[in-house]
Specification:
heterotrimer, A alpha/beta (507), B mainly alpha (315), C mainly alpha (285), A: 507 residues, alpha/beta, D-Maltodextrin-Binding Protein, domain 2, 2 domains, 5-stranded mixed beta sheet, 4-stranded mixed beta sheet, 20 helices, globular, disordered N terminus, C: 285 residues, mainly alpha, MetI-like fold, 14 helices, 70% helix, disordered C terminus
Chain lengths: 507, 315, 285
């Protein structure tokens, strides 16, 4: 009796396992390419209706997209190009999932990469060298500038296409109503900047009788971007070119002066004490706790955001501040020539599947202007999401549903045209931020550090100690020396120099 | 069948073992699904540990990747890092604080709940105290900031109203570990009490009746009946926990720490994360994992030997 | 004398418990209030919101509008129910034999199990095994690779060991086999621990996230937590875009309430079983 029982239970548990195995086998068809997808003859675009070509795309993004069978953009592209693209967006743990897929032998055909994964995957021979296929993508060839193509280069080969450039968007924003209340002028120099910050802290700009405001807020070191650049140096941790030589911003002499100024500023109490740890600095700004914030125009000036802070305080008036002038000139933050919003690469395995490869290239070309697909990924379907009026694109209300579309613009877009359509009300802010003088940096082109020095804790932590007066500025030279020797900055500068020379930024 | 009897007549160690094994075949049969699971899904992947000694390469796979040069390269990377000593120390300290301050509250809560006779009140407290376990760390940090932020946290508003000063709870090295540990207690007290509450159910109620007849008060009964009744569970959890002495809780620290508190907050895992982030260094992570396991095994074996004295050993 | 002391003692207990309740309720009220309050109102009132003044369900509506969410509930419920069942069957089948000190090889098995609480093979080889066994892109990938939890197994074994040996012997004399003893004596007497371990497993499945992300790419098979994490962590992705609006704190809190609520509601029903152990006394007596 009892033996029968135990046998039964074991059997049951065993069934659980095998069942799992079975359904696993049958539930996994999507990963495999169709066994008989028209072999050979990629050139002969036969008039015969062919099976749609299948391929997979796995992109890193913020999500918010509908399932692909309900995504009008993906559906339209599939129809236009006779393909069946499996388009997925990874929101969390992207790199790990991608590694797992590649390890498991089922790499996506098109996927997001970044500077570090390009290096890793290219070294491991996983990526297709796109240089030899540019001719098959005339739109890409035409739309991408030399600099654009440089961004996806590693060891001289083009392994990735970046999303074509965005434009500079960050500036200091200031409560002009507070300035008026305290009879202050818009600050133009770093000295005036300091005075305004102190006044915002000490002179009760919100008039509630309490000392509950600060001058400056922001998130981490970038909160001081406009200050660093007024001293003529880029934010810590960046590579600049000076006198035709690569230099590292943290170890520049001007950094010492800038940090001295910031330390003084912090000592006055005019800086949000949580400036380095803030997760939502905008909340503080909108609540009226701080009068100046370093941020980009979308965070303050898009209609939804404007409604939030106007709701809280109808008198609040946030305006963009012009670049500050300091000993290093007049600059407002930095602009990285190699700045990317994201890059895509193609799996090397496609070399063996010319049909698929040609379709992927056709697709990427199609979504790059002047390809018709660019309009689709940017604005959706004509008549539904946008309409054409005298050659210009006019948004229809339904375009509001396509907030996720940026993730499907794999090859980027012509930024200004795009913004004019999507942010029609923000034109002046966009223009202002774009035309501010910036210090150019080239950090994105410089190879990443390797091994234990990849940890930037020492550089960051000690810098913060100087800023908060926990380490006297007299020890600054020791700090620079330690960085140069123990943390290989000297060696990395030489590396940076040769990398930038190769790309032609250093002569 | 005959064979077993024959063997029984001439017993030696091997045959006796075999005979016993046959005798308990029903027990082994029961374990087969579980053992299969362990063999395939738990021990199956363990060969992956070799990448601690290799330069892992995705294309070449675990076996094809070249050996690291020297083989202890990734162990050395950790030991040579400027913060090796500090992160090891922080890891141990935070882990021990969490153990010492984290275990008793659950036990105490369970004992207190056990004393409560109002059924509704008991269930209410139990359910409420278990709720925070379901908040993710990001949300808990949000709550901590809303309470303790130096500029607009509720607690600091009170402190400021009373003293005129604010306390930098989240950015001061004096406070960070306290906040870390107390947040952990708050999140887990109700959850960790569950297992002790279950353990109380196996205490023989007649013991309490006997004690009551002897005129023992509640506190004496707790001390002499309740606590000894859950001793084996406490010991089991303690021994298992000691094996994780180098796990100080990565997620919590990673979400809550900041540049101001690195000297007291940076642990081995956060260091690995920062270094590995740049180049997805699986080999380094595995090497550090092996190192932590090694320490854990030593501790767990030692603790088990000690626990044997109080009849609480695992094996 | 003892009565007076006991009363004092009990009062202290009640006060402490009430304190604990308050310390949990207030932060939770904050979570709920924020989820019900418009974002600008949250900022306006500043600091710590305990009671919502302007109630709106906008955050909940925004969350539920996405057709995937109800579906994700279904997936989560499925892996929780089926997964917990598989867990309990496998775990108890393994825990019971391991309580037998005379079982040859017992210590070796236990050592091997304890070792797994300390060390795992890592993501990549585990992924390969899951792939080889054909679980990739199925719900089973979220159930089978975690079929037995070593910690839960050891706890269950410890509880089984607490049962009096005399029961075992009595049953054996009555002619019951091992399976009979497990099913008819050990399990009925172990309801508190089965409920507890079941709860541990169920909560683990309810919070399933990593396995889902790594092993399942089909969004239709993604459980609730994947959606929740997507909401909590959106905006932390390096590809931050101007059109990608950071989820407001109200939306985040609403997501938390929606994901945690069902499993929290279950708990009082499980608590009932903790007292069932009283049975033990009666059997023994």
């Amino acid at each position: 009796m009892h033996r029968k029982w135990s046998a039964g239970m074991v059997l049951f548990a065993g069934v659980c396992l095998t069942l799992a195995g079975c359904s696993g086998g049958s539930g996994n068809p999507s990963a495999k390419p169709p066994a008989s997808s028209s072999p050979g003859q990629p050139e002969a675009s036969a008039p015969v209706r062919q099976e749609p070509v299948k391929f997979t795309v796995f992109i890193q993004g913020g999500g918010g997209n509908p399932p692909q069978d309900k995504d009008p953009i993906i559906q339209q592209l599939n129809k236009d190009l006779n393909m069946a693209m499996d388009f997925n967006i990874g929101v969390t743990e992207y790199d790990q999932v991608l590694t797992a897929k590649i390890t498991g032998g089922t790499p996506p055909d098109v996927f997001s990469v970044n500077k570090s994964t390009i290096k890793q995957f290219a070294d491991q021979d996983l990526l297709l060298d796109l240089g030899q296929y540019l001719d098959k993508m005339p739109n890409v060839k035409q739309a991408y500038t030399e600099t654009d193509l440089n961004k996806g280069k590693y060891k001289g080969k083009i392994y990735a296409l970046d999303k074509r450039p965005t434009i500079p968007m960050h500036t200091y924003w200031i409560r002009s109503d507070w300035l008026r209340k305290l009879n202050l002028q818009m600050p133009k120099t770093i000295e005036e900047f300091k005075n305004v910050l102190v006044a915002f802290t000490e002179r009760d700009p919100d008039g509630n009788g309490k000392k509950d405001t600060f001058g400056l807020t922001g998130a981490d070191l970038p909160a001081f971007s406009g200050v660093f650049t007024a001293f003529g140096v880029a934010n810590p941790g960046n590579w600049q070119i000076k006198d035709d030589q690569a230099v590292y911003s943290t170890t520049e002499p001007a950094m010492k002066t800038a940090i001295g100024y910031i330390a003084d500023l912090i000592r006055t109490g005019a800086v949000d004490p949580e400036v380095l740890t803030n997760q939502n600095p905008h909340d503080k700004a909108f609540k009226g706790q701080a009068g100046i914030i370093w941020t980009n125009w979308p965070s303050i000036s898009v209609d939804a955001k404007m409604k939030v802070w106007k709701d809280i305080n109808p008198n609040a008036d946030w305006v963009q501040m012009d670049a500050l002038t300091g000993p290093g000139g007049k600059f407002q933050g930095i602009w990285d020539a190699g700045n990317v919003q994201g890059m895509i690469a193609i799996s090397k395995s496609l070399e063996k599947e010319p049909d698929k490869l040609n379709k992927v290239l056709e697709y990427l070309d199609y979504i790059t202007d002047p390809g018709k697909g660019q309009l689709t990924v940017n604005y959706g379907i004509e008549g539904t999401h946008y309409k054409m009026e005298n050659g210009t694109i006019v948004a229809l209300p339904a375009m509001g549903d396509l907030g996720y579309a940026y993730q499907e613009q794999l090859t980027g877009r012509s930024e200004q045209d795009y913004l004019k359509v999507k942010f029609a009300n923000q034109g002046s802010y966009i223009e202002f931020a774009m035309n501010q003088p910036r210090i150019p940096v080239y950090s994105s082109f410089v190879p990443l550090p390797e091994g234990a020095i990849a940890d930037d804790r020492y550089e960051y932590e000690e810098l913060v100690k100087f800023m908060y007066g926990k380490r006297p500025l007299t020890q600054w030279d020791d700090y620079v020396k330690t960085l140069n020797t123990k943390f290989n900055i000297t060696a990395r500068t030489a590396e940076a120099e040769s990398a930038l020379k190769e790309l032609g930024y250093v002569k | 069948m005959e064979k077993t009897i024959a063997e029984a007549k001439a017993p030696n160690l091997g045959t006796r073992w075999r005979r016993n094994a046959w005798r308990y075949r029903a027990l082994y049969l029961m374990m087969i699904p579980g053992l299969l699971y362990y063999a395939i899904y738990v021990y199956g992947p363990m060969y992956g540990a070799v990448i601690a000694f290799k330069d892992y390469n995705v294309t070449k796979g675990i076996f094809g990747s070249p050996w690291a040069d020297p083989w202890y390269r990734y162990f050395k990377m950790y030991l040579d890092s400027p913060y090796a000593w500090q992160t090891l120390r922080n890891t141990l300290l935070i882990s021990l604080y969490k153990l010492v301050w984290g275990m008793p509250p659950g036990i105490i809560l369970a004992i207190m709940l056990n004393e409560v006779k109002h059924k509704f009140f008991k269930r209410f407290v139990q359910t409420v105290s278990y709720l925070p376990h379901f908040l993710s760390m990001v949300i808990i940090y949000g709550l901590v900031v809303a309470l303790l932020s130096q500029t607009d946290g509720l607690v600091n508003q009170w402190i400021k109203a009373l003293t005129g000063e604010s306390v930098p709870f989240l950015t001061s090295t004096d406070w960070f570990r306290t906040i870390l540990v107390s947040t952990g207690i708050w999140q887990n007290i109700g959850w960790s009490a569950i297992i002790y509450l279950a353990a109380f159910s196996s205490i023989d109620p007649s013991l309490y009746e006997a004690a009551r007849c002897d005129g023992a008060g509640r506190r004496r009964m707790i001390w002499h009946i309740t606590l000894p009744g859950i001793r084996s569970v406490i010991l089991l959890l303690l021994v298992l926990r000691l094996g994780h002495v180098l796990d100080a809780g990565f997620e919590q620290i990673y979400i809550m720490y900041n540049v101001h508190v690195y000297p007291v907050a940076d642990i081995i895992d956060t260091w690995v994360f920062r270094v590995g982030l740049v180049d997805m260094n699986f080999s380094l992570a595995t090497a550090v994992g092996l190192f932590k396991t090694l320490i854990g095994v030593v501790l767990i074996v030692g603790a088990n030997r000690l626990a044997k004295r109080w009849e609480g050993s695992i094996w | 004398m003892t009565v007076w002391k006991d009363r004092l003692f009990l009062s202290v207990v009640y006060i402490l418990l009430a304190g604990l309740v308050v310390s949990v309720i207030f932060p939770l009220l904050y979570v709920i209030s924020v989820s019900l309050t418009p974002y600008s109102e949250v900022l306006k009132q500043g600091g710590f919101l305990v009671f919502p003044r302007h109630v709106t369900l906008a955050a909940y509506k925004a969350f539920l509008r996405d057709g995937l969410i109800p579906h994700a509930y279904g997936v989560t419920v499925f892996i929780t129910v089926v997964g917990t069942f598989v867990n309990l069957v496998l775990t108890s089948l393994m825990a019971y034999p391991l309580t037998k000190k005379y079982l040859p090889g017992r210590n070796a098995f236990l050592l091997l199990i304890v070792f797994t609480t300390l060390f795992g093979g890592g993501m990549i080889p585990t992924y390969l095994i899951v792939k080889e066994t054909g679980l990739l892109d199925t719900v089973w990938a979220m159930i089978v690779p975690g079929a037995v939890g070593s910690f839960n197994l050891l706890v269950m074994k410890a509880f089984f060991e607490n049962l009096p040996e005399s029961l075992d012997e009595a049953a054996r004399i009555d002619g019951a086999g091992e399976t009979g003893i497990l099913l008819r004596i050990v399990l009925p007497l172990s309801m508190p621990i089965m409920a507890t371990i079941g709860l541990f497993y169920a909560v683990g499945h309810w919070n399933e996230y990593f396995a889902a992300i790594i092993y399942v790419s089909d969004r239709k098979l993604h459980p609730l937590q994947v959606m929740l994490q997507g909401i909590l962590r959106a905006g932390q992705s390096p590809e931050m875009n101007i059109e990608e609006t950071m989820p407001t704190i109200s939306l985040q809190m609403a997501a938390v309430v929606l994901t945690a609520l069902p499993i929290v509601v279950i708990y009082p029903f499980i608590q009932k079983h903790f007292t069932k152990g009283v049975l033990l006394g009666s059997v023994k007596g």
